[in-house]
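Take a look at this chain, tokens included, and explain the fold to me:
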Amino acid sequence: MTEAGRNSRWIGRSVDRREDGRLLSGRGRFTDDVILPRTAHVAVLGSPHAHARIVSIDTSAAEALPGVLRVMTGRDLAAVIDPMPTLSSPPVIQHCVALEKVRHVGEPVVAVAAETRYIAEDALALIEVAYEPLSPVVDPEAAIEATGDALLHPERGTNVVHRSTHRWGPVDEAFANAARVVRRRFRWPRVSPQPLETCAAVVDYDPSERKFTIYSNMSQQGVLGMRLSRALRVEPYQLNFHMRDVGGSFGGKSTLYHVPMIAAAFARELRRPVKYVEDRVEHMSNGNQHASDRVYDAALAVDADNRFTGLTLKVIDDYGAYFLMNTGSHGNALAQAVGPYTIGALEYDLTCVVTNKTNQAPYRGFGGEVGNFVIERLVDAAARELHCNPIELRRQNFIQPDQFPYRIPNGNIYDSGNYDRVLERALAHADLPEWRMRKAEAKAQGKRIGIGIATVNERSVLSVTELWFLDKEPGFPQSSSPESVQIKMLADGMVVVTIYAPHWGNSPETSAVQLVAECLFIDPERITVAYASTDSGLMSKGPVGSRYTVMLAGAIVGACAKLKERLTLFAAHLLDARPEECELLDERIFVTSNPAKGCSFAEVARAAHSFRLSFPDSEAYHSGLVAQYTYDHPLTTLPKADRSDLGIFYPIVGHACHIVVVEIDAITNQTRFLKYVAVHDAGTILNPKLVDGQIRGGIAQGIGTALYEKYYYDDSGQLLTASLADYALPTAEEIPDIVTDHVETPSPFTEFGMKGCGEGGRLAAMPAIASAIDDAFSDEGVYVDELPVTPSFLHALRARVKS
């Protein structure tokens, strides 16, 4: 039980997951499980070239194949649907299927619908496409200066899609007065989430109403429906999305547009349901789910007292062939740009480029993990140059508890925290003196033991202004990030909670049940959860940006307050009392002056549902017990027009300290974990079991990024790691036992003081592991400035340092 759990009935308790029953018994409701009569199946033909003009396409043999229903080129699709939605400004146009040229390997050139997926795949093999190759550009720095046929979008005249420089605080003064300036260059690898379930959609079309019914594993259906409807050339009410279980997203499926759009286009043309489920190669080469791919030149100013005073970050970000998500991932980074440290001056110089690679999209951390890596690596470099203890250097520069809410230079605030307490808790678990004693013994046996630490912040509860505030003229300056819920009490006193977002693995049903049980003083066994389609749903941003549980809590508190008013109104009449004289407890409403005088929820609900004439003739006593509530972001403000202040845009900020002990074979350079400690402050914890699962899952993905994963493109733009046979993922064998613990500093801005915690495990893992590898070879001067640290990379790094 957590600290909060001692003062609550259900908040802070490790309640078993409601979702597990159906998921573990194979009864999950995934997109590919949708079976509609007469369903056609789609397959797409991907480009073998990274950059080329499409000279001609011959589909005649494919169209003649028995079982083929329709073959559509990019031009065919462009005649019936518009380009994909984009947040970029000005827009970088991206079609679901390429028109005149292809811009990355795997980009669709032709789509086929057939009676079965097998027939559709056979048809693809019969299509002949003639290409005129163009110069590919895969290096983001080379992309900046590229000209001629190396321009991906010639109409723009450049491969640079965004360039801006922002300064907040006394940057010049901080660096001019610095006793030391620590400078490093970093290269962040292109990776992606690799969910079990690829992007998928099943779409049916009703020509009489010109209406699409869509089953898809995307998110944000409730707020993106309007943009998708425009692309499909219908009105928003003519799209109805059904919420599904999702076999992994980790952010990537929040911008899953191309799959439902292709399926919808065929469904309208064929007048029958259409299913399109990516295979793994399609997903890896064209799923629009690659993550950040960056070069950093970073500098940290340190004064004579070893205090951090200024930070400059020059970033080149490789977005792939298009610019779907605009600069949103840099909003994530800027939300916690100075980490947990009192750095008063910040410069952010950003250049975004397009290259002949797959599109970039969110992935657990959405750029914040890269920012954390850079600042933590700078702190380790500073400790090395200053010849001081990296733990004490961090402690010395921490924001102090009495400084919260703390405003960082660009305008965002951190709501609460006690970073030293988190650090102390982690150190208590880590047994560092013991591991330090074992280092010399291990070295004598050809092993290197390294101890690493990272102390990072975890912004949570997304506000959408981060997606556009770096633009001078935003293309879509949205500012609402709502979440909604409906709570209905049935005539027998059972409660049905209806939510409007898919299940991404974030346990929304379990969370909803605990929250409603807490608010209504009701047994969780008497609460059930339903998912509504967008036709019957309210506004929902969905599970993205570590926001959902906090936002769901706000919506549930609001709806429960309204429902309690209704319950109390009816009960007061039954008890011949005034509503203000009544209280609720243990599924019962009683008169406070006479607790024996009361009635059960079931009795009140039965009366409210079935005995209208027993109550006064007033609209207040209309039949039924239903409450709806839409909860807006708990704290957010708009940026200033000149961007001298970005506003408050991600103020619910957690914190984590990870301490890692690794053992590395000095000959093979193979890394394994001896100890992994993760202490997190996510505010008030709703369910420790769920939070620990999120942390451990994030760490597993962080280990993948740190040691194994990378999309490798050769100089011609060929993707060399387009299958899981080549793209290395850690297995359960490589993931250590992880000690998790928690410190709770409640947020003053959210219901119950909760903060998000979906991304913190990954946000802290990579810098902690890099720090441990440094320490293992401290006598050689190794410094990790690039990931992943594979055995071959570490071998080359050690050789380079020695030379």
The longest helix spans residues 548-574. The mean pLDDT is 95. The two ends are 54 Å apart (CA to CA).
